[in-house]
Amino acid sequence: MPAIADIVFQGERFQCSSLRTLYHPLTGTLVVSDCHFGKTTHFRKNALPLPEMATNKDFDRLALALNQFAVKHVVFLGDLFHSHENREWQMLSDFLYSYPYLTFTLVKGNHDILPLEAYKRAGITITAAVKINNLHLVHDVDETEALSGPFISGHIHPGYRIKGLGKQQLSLPCFFAGNNNLIMPAFGSLTGLALIDKLSAGDRVYCFTEKQFYPLP
């Protein structure tokens, strides 16, 4: 079973999942960031041998996440699709069509370059930000000068290096909760990690594997 960790950020209670999602029980909102669907096909067309099975695994993981909680609304926190339309867009559209009882909103990210009509046909509402009570859900905090925090954001693909005995080290994806910003891990399997080098007072890091969370500090 996927692991769950409770987190309170700016007075709001969330549940982090090791499926790389964030759930807000009060509103039934599931937040998913940086899926980058279409990336496998995009790079395979450019002769880079990425494993095609990664796409199916990501769809399977998203289905598990939708069944893990009592979801009513899904917010994709930017970079839903990696680049121009390819066959994976139809796969994504078909997947979303199979959940007619859910609403889907995309907070536009820098990779979300498809025509607006494409999102509309897939049943996705596209916007610059979503608000949950006092929290602004955005893709990239650095691109939100018109909004004041606190924020939940993505874009960075945060990770953290855990050090063990001797010189053992393990880099894991994480949820990062700073004073004014909760940063989501990237959902997509082929996205990599941007390691957080230094923590400030009050920062919290929730590293995870498929089956366990490791809150720090």
Short description:
The chain has 217 residues and is an alpha/beta fold.
Which helices and strands appear, and what pairs or packs with what?
Layout: E1 4-9, E2 12-17, E3 21-24, E4 29-32, H1 39-45, H2 53-68, E5 73-76, H3 87-97, E6 103-107, H4 116-121, E7 124-127, E8 130-132, E9 135-137, E10 151-153, E11 158-163, E12 169-177, E13 181-183, E14 194-195, E15 204-208, E16 213-216
Parallel strand pairs: 4-5, 5-6, 6-7, 9-10, 10-13, 11-14
Antiparallel strand pairs: 1-2, 2-3, 3-4, 8-9, 11-12, 12-13, 12-15, 15-16
The major β-sheet equals: 9 strands, mixed
Helical run tally: 4
Radius of gyration: 17 Å
Please write the CATH class name.
Alpha Beta
Question: Which stretches of 5+ consecutive residues score pLDDT under 50?
Answer: none
Instruction: Give the % helix.
Output: 10-25%
Number of beta strands:
16
Number of domains: 1
Briefly note the structural class of the backbone: alpha/beta
What does this structure look like?
With 217 residues, this protein is α/β, with parallel strands linked by helices. It has one domain: Purple Acid Phosphatase, chain A, domain 2. The protein contains four helices and 16 strands. Strands 8, 9, 10, 11, 12, 13, 14, 15 and 16 form a nine-stranded mixed sheet that branches. The protein has a seven-stranded mixed sheet with strand order 1-2-3-4-5-6-7. A hairpin with a 4-residue loop joins β15 and β16. The longest helix is centred in the N-terminal third of the chain and has 16 residues. It is globular. The model has no long low-confidence stretch (mean pLDDT 89).
